[in-house]
Automatic annotation (TrEMBL):
It comes from Fusobacterium periodonticum 2_1_31. InterPro entries: ACMSD, Amidohydro-rel, Metal_Hydrolase. PANTHER family: 2-AMINO-3-CARBOXYLMUCONATE-6-SEMIALDEHYDE DECARBOXYLASE, ISO-OROTATE DECARBOXYLASE (EUROFUNG). Pfam families: Amidohydro_2. Residues 65-263 form the Amidohydrolase-related domain. This is Amidohydrolase-related domain-containing protein.
């Protein structure tokens, strides 16, 4: 089974399903989204859609509004998962800034009870927000079957990535997916994932094919195919893996086997 392990919900959902079918992908893991850049046809329209996200990343947000936005996004996600259970799994967001008991309560209410498969995407806008993730790690020790997906490209810094590495080692029961292979810090991240049992690599949004090639060469059992729709395309990302990885068994694992094993789902 071929699984795109990281897509954001796009509208209309039929367009998302069409992309999967064109790429020959059986199923995708859907993440919630705030902006909808798939609606944009011009640069200005794209900037308008992304402006909300940039405000969130810069910390310009109201905590109550942020939580309400997450609740609404999860509700939108659940509608799709219920309508197309054969096409999608789901990951759900968890707000930063809650205490441990509040975080566990949120995970119970919005992740576990809804049968979502993991938490994320977390996109820290600065190192202070990265540090806030420790509460999430602490909470997930009670749910070691739920992976956490963290964006590690810009605006996350090398210092922020080092903090994440410390948390990953400190909480070995928590499976951590390093989104986008660490961006420009990909060599550091690949080396870390190679030596850390609970660390994994998301292969989307890499800025060079050699980054993906090195990840496959060094940690093939930790690499997860994904497209990051609407910022990438399932077909193009799948073709890159097929081109770079000639070993059929390894290729099948990257295209689906690794993430199914991580989610403890039977093929």
């Amino acid at each position: 089974m071929i699984i795109d392990s990281h897509e954001h919900l796009i509208l209309p959902i039929e367009m998302q399903i069409k992309k999967l079918e064109e790429a020959g992908v059986d199923k995708a893991i859907l993440f919630t989204t705030t902006p909808h850049p798939e609606k944009a046809n011009t640069m200005q329209e794209f900037k308008n859609e992304m402006s909300v996200l940039f405000k969130v990343l810069s910390g310009e947000k109201n905590h109550k509004n942020d939580m309400k936005r997450m609740e609404n996004n999860i509700n939108d996600l659940m509608k799709v998962l219920k309508k197309y259970p054969d096409k999608f799994y789901g990951f759900g967001p968890v707000p930063l800034g809650l205490n441990l008991d509040e975080t566990i309560s949120w995970i119970e209410k919005y992740i576990v009870s809804k049968n979502l498969k993991g938490v994320g995407e977390f996109t820290p806008g600065n190192d202070e927000q990265v540090k806030q993730l420790e509460i999430i790690f602490q909470a997930l020790e009670n749910y070691n079957y739920l992976p956490i997906w963290i964006h590690t490209f810009y605006p996350v810094t090398l210092n922020g990535i080092n903090i994440l590495m410390e948390f990953t080692k400190k909480y070995p029961k928590v499976s951590v997916i390093f989104g986008h292979i660490g961006g420009y810090n990909w060599m550091n991240v690949i080396d870390f994932v190679k030596e850390t049992p609970n660390a994994y690599l998301d292969l989307s949004a890499s800025f060079s094919s050699i980054v993906v090639k090195m990840a496959i060469a060094e940690v093939p059992n930790k690499c997860l195919y994904s497209s990051d729709v609407p910022y990438g395309e399932p077909l193009l990302n799948k073709q890159m893996i097929e081109y770079l990885c000639k070993d059929e068994k390894v290729r099948k694992n990257i295209l689906g086997g690794n993430i199914l094993k991580l989610l403890k789902e039977n093929i």
